């Protein structure tokens, strides 16, 4: 059976530059265009409905974006058409002696009513395909017209409220069928507990298909367990009184903790707040706010901050002079006009002189014209066909950023406070509120065990103490924003750049010696009609803040409760 063998070895067909896991990971965006991690061993993602058909089902957050996803799949397959033909041939009957016609097209598959992207191999003189590979994207809607929500925060909250410490050794040691049943039993219980979480949001995401509730989201469960097991170990015998989610609103009892400077909304970034009472003669009630991030076991650090860099709502706009902002906007308009003229080879677009078009129209046109991922990247890097149109827009953003924020101690204090909440306790003046920035790590692949890693925590008071020592130390004189020194991270406008991004590091130190606090990136995450996003990541490794934090808390362990 052609389909069964092809399905089992689908990674041998889609490999190298057209590897599906890498591809879906690279095109996965935020919100509606978020795509589940591809798993070729999953029977929900790789199906064989007939002897001649393999159906591949990537899962995208919103069903309204399935057409967009199909377009991306089409671009991938047609770009690598000849390579795919050669990869498919060994799975065809008598492929050495039979001549096959290959079709790559979009069409509806009989019995589904869904428009699919299809690759077919048809023997010469025959009507029916010997092997068909059909892509049918599945939208993970909640059955009520919306999309499947992210369950990570709510799962974590439920586990903590129930004080459900997960014994992974016992759980993962079960036989296959029993283990899967045990996983589902945990999620079913959490689904019931969710009604007790004040401000609960994310319930529709507990299951891959919220209507059927047969397949729990074990990837997010693994990440939630990473945090909850850690938190419950610290809470110990204390009684968990309540857990709140803050995403929709701050409940009356915890409103007093929603504090901070007037210039920063949601300064207290706690996603969930746990209320618990310790036992013994010195028993007291405490509130613990957890700012939750998540990552796979081997993933890099997740984004700490993700905001527009410049533009009307830009994070940095308020800190630069109006004339400098105008220079950035002028460079933006000139760059994209040049990109459009280069692509089309003409000076008009839809009957209008490109040089005289309004910026909004220019950006909309650019977004329409540059849909293919590689060409878009090439354009933004000023390479290949676009070499004569260098990215003066990114170059101007880079100039302004370094001019105004390098060696700027005031900016460092304000910016790092935004990320790490250095001054949170000062705003609270409440010894019973505790804060942690914490990243849960875990993964799951169909048929395998729940993999849970140790979370990384930056405890609030310890973090504050470290930064205040830095900022008050008279020997600390260096506050540097510098281009990332990694030769593989060239700025997008520099010759030889491999990514359409700007890369920076923020360093604090004594003289020429410094600790790298965070890595920064500026890049487009989606439509060109929006603003490039300013993304912040925790730096790891030698001479990083993470490394310094580990050393400091080893010397002075956090005083909890």
What descriptive keywords fit this protein?
561 residues; alpha+beta; 3 domains; 5-stranded mixed beta sheet; 17 helices; 34% helix
Structure description:
With 561 residues, this protein is α+β, with helices and mostly antiparallel strands. It folds into 3 domains: 2-139, no CATH class; 152-295, no CATH class; 308-413 and 475-538, no CATH class. 34% of the residues lie in helices and 22% in strands. The strands form 5 sheets. Strands 1-2-6-5-4 form a 5-stranded mixed beta sheet, with helices on one face. The chain has a 5-stranded mixed beta sheet with strand order 8-9-10-14-15. It has a 5-stranded antiparallel beta sheet with strand order 11-19-18-17-16. β14 and β15 (451-459) form a beta hairpin. It is globular.
